[in-house]
Amino acid sequence: MDSEATNKILIFGGTGYIGKYMVKASVSLGHKTYVYARPISEKTSLSKLQLQKEFQSLGVIIVQGELDEHEKLVSVIREVDVVISALAYPQVLDQFKIIDAIKVAGNIKRFLPSDFGCEEDRVRPLPPFDNFLEKKRRIRRAIEAAGIPYTFVSANCFGAYFVNFLLRPYDQPDHILVYGSGEAKALPHPENIPISILHCIFVKGEMMSFELDKNDIEASKLYSDFQFSTIDQLLDIFLSDPPRPASAAFE
Ligand SMILES: NC(=O)c1ccc[n+]([C@@H]2O[C@H](COP(=O)([O-])OP(=O)(O)OC[C@H]3O[C@@H](n4cnc5c(N)ncnc54)[C@H](OP(=O)(O)O)[C@@H]3O)[C@@H](O)[C@H]2O)c1
After folding, report:
1. To test ligand 1's pocket by mutation, which of 62, 87, 97, 200 has the most ligand atoms within 8 angstroms of CB?
2. What is the pLDDT of residues 147-179, one digit of tens each?
3. Would the pTM count as exceeding 0.90?
4. Which of 8, 16, 149, 172 is most enclosed, with most CB atoms within 10 A?
């Protein structure tokens, strides 16, 4: 691997649903990879411990720390070129602490905040989801104001996540919940968030409601060799070996 083409990459939230794929992809592309993770305690799950062991066997450097340990953040950020955050949604505003540390470190070539959802600057969903997105918009504005080079990644819906969420093949439910009779007047928070996300995606079609402009790039063009799974192929997998459904944290 040409070392000119590789970077040192620090990933926050690297043990999470999305983060673990990023860590493995970073390693497989030859980048020296660091994961900033909360310190191990008696509350750390066995699966997280196993994942961290797996990362270490791949050569990943795990830095244990909390997000409010400013000096530690600055020193680990000084060691790397690129910072990726895949923190859970409830930690979105904690990314101000990462931004502050990046500003002090002053060396970061690129920062990717924890977006990985819909294009929050161009959609206006119902208030429960819009309030959720507003926090991610605040992080984008702070990155721009700080002059940090960035890439904002709009992943729209991860197929496996949403097809699984909708069909639930793993649970084999004996009843099906039908949304949208129009009878329900209100849902308590935070249960109203996933419902307003589904409304935004499947009722309003907001993922497809805007055109890309000259500053945007359709990510699949960057990875033309990558073999994407079609929904058809995904449904075959779900029939033969259904994965457990994931549910993003909302608070
Ligand atoms: N487009 C889609 O379909 C889709 C689907 C799901 C999520 N998303 C988005 O993707 C991003 C990541 O979501 P995710 O579901 O992958 O996250 P997740 O698995 O719930 O959590 C990611 C990581 O955040 C860290 N974390 C969790 N609680 C924390 C706390 N109290 N303090 C500090 N760190 C904490 C943990 O890392 P450590 O334990 O290692 O510290 C955890 O592994 C979010 O922005 C979310 O909105 C998009």
Report:
1. 87
2. 999 999 998 888 888 888 888 888 877 877 776
3. yes
4. 16
Please identify, by atom number, the ligand 1 atom nearest to the C-alpha of residue 136: 45
The pLDDT, as a whole number, for residue 175 is 79
Please identify which of the residues 24, 103, 136, 185 carries the catalytic annotation. 136
Q: Rounded to the nearest whole angstrom, what is the distance from the C-alpha of residue 232 to the centroid of ligand 1?
A: 28
164 to 49, 55, 167, 230: CA distances (angstroms): 26, 26, 5, 14
Residue 207 confidence (pLDDT) above 60: yes
88 CB near ligand 1 (under 6 Å): yes
Residue nearest to atom 25 of ligand 1 (CA): 13
Task: Tell me if the bond preceding 190 is cis, omega within 30° of 0.
Answer: yes
CATH topology of domain 1-114: Rossmann fold (3.40.50)
In this structure, what are the phi and psi dihedrals at residue 11, rounded to the nearest 5 degrees?
A: -120, 125
Counting residues of the chain whose pLDDT is more than 70, the rounded percentage is 95
**How many angstroms separate the first and last alpha carbons of the chain?**
41
Question: What are the extents of the domains in the chain?
Answer: 1-114
Instruction: Please say if the pLDDT value at position 235 is more than 80.
Output: yes
